Amino acid sequence: MTDIIDAWMQHPTPRLLSQPFLAPLLRWTGQSANGLTLPLSQTLADMDAGGIRLGLISAWYGPGGPLISNDEVAAVMAEAPDRFAGIGGADISRPMEAVAEIRRCVKQLGFKGIRIIQWLWRLPPTHRWYAPVFAECCELGVPVCLQVGHTGPLMPSETGRPIPYIDEIAIDFPELTIVGGHIGYPWTEEMVAVCTKHPNVYIDTSAYTAARYPAELVRYMKAHGAGKVMFGTNYPMIAPAKALERLDDLDLDSQTRELFLHGNAERVFRL
Q: What's the confidence (pLDDT) of residue 178?
């Protein structure tokens, strides 16, 4: 497998890695913050080992400022432009500044989407601060990437519920393409229901290995959800090769497998 797109990864900064809320993830994966201060050469080597052709690398913006800034994402892209595409972020508490930054991300930096990590803000995505971002993403024709499911870091999980939050956003913004990262567990059935209901809502499997995909997600992929699920790692939390272990055990047909590994991401992010 050498034609895979990773829908959610990041090249971490010391600012991100020093956050106390990451302690559970480091403990679960047996990693340390020092060990995750990676040179770009290591990120590229890990992508090569897992057959990742292109990684969508994310900015992280929270109330305290950027943990990975858009310019830092752009700098990584500039070092390996054929291997990375950018997913931008913004300070949603300053709506007009956020809109201007999103326009810069897409029109000047060439980013392919915008990510808001709701638990950083401790606000569900139906809060008024998100609406200008959603409207601008519609105007620019790029997806908004959100987190669905429980929060692994030491932050509340409520903001990641697919129902009511993703459902209500999709109703209010039918033109908006929404990608819910991290599967939605333990509300995977809710996420599948929302994806089935709304044509512009998708799922990525970041933060889970193939061996841990919930049965209801695999059933959805094999049935009417073949065009709705895309592969992701949440690198460096999970290396691509590790995330893909036991993919064959899912017994996906060739078309579904190709859509999952790269086709859906190519279409949704216009790659």
A: 98
pLDDT the model gives residue 13: 84
Range of the domain at 193: 4-268
Number of domains the chain contains = 1
Q: Are 91 and 97 in contact (CB under 8 A)?
A: yes
Comparing CA positions, the residue from 172, 174, 124 lying closest to residue 146 is 124
**HSE of 176 in the Cβ direction (CA atoms, 13 Å)?**
23
The helix/strand count (H/E) of the chain reads as 13, 10
| pLDDT value of residue 21 | 75
The residues of the chain scoring below 70 in pLDDT are 1, 23-37
Helices assigned H by DSSP within the chain = 14-17, 23-29, 40-50, 70-79, 95-103, 118-121, 131-140, 167-172, 188-197, 215-222, 240-244, 254-258, 264-268
> In the numeric block, which tokens belong to residue 228?
């709705």
Give the span between the Cα atoms of 43 and 80, in whole angstroms: 11
Could you give the CA distance from residue 46 to residue 24 in angstroms, rounded to a whole number?
23
Question: What local confidence, expressed as pLDDT, does residue 37 receive?
Answer: 64
Question: Minimal CA–CA distance to 209: which of 238, 188, 175, 171?
Answer: 238
| pLDDT (0 to 100) of residue 257 | 98
**CB burial readout 207-244, b (16+ within 10 A) else e:** bbbbeebbebbbebbeeebbbbbbbbbbbbbbbbbbbb
Q: Is the pTM of this model over 0.85?
A: yes
CATH of the domain at 222: 3.20.20.140
* Alpha-carbon span 244 to 81, nearest angstrom: 24
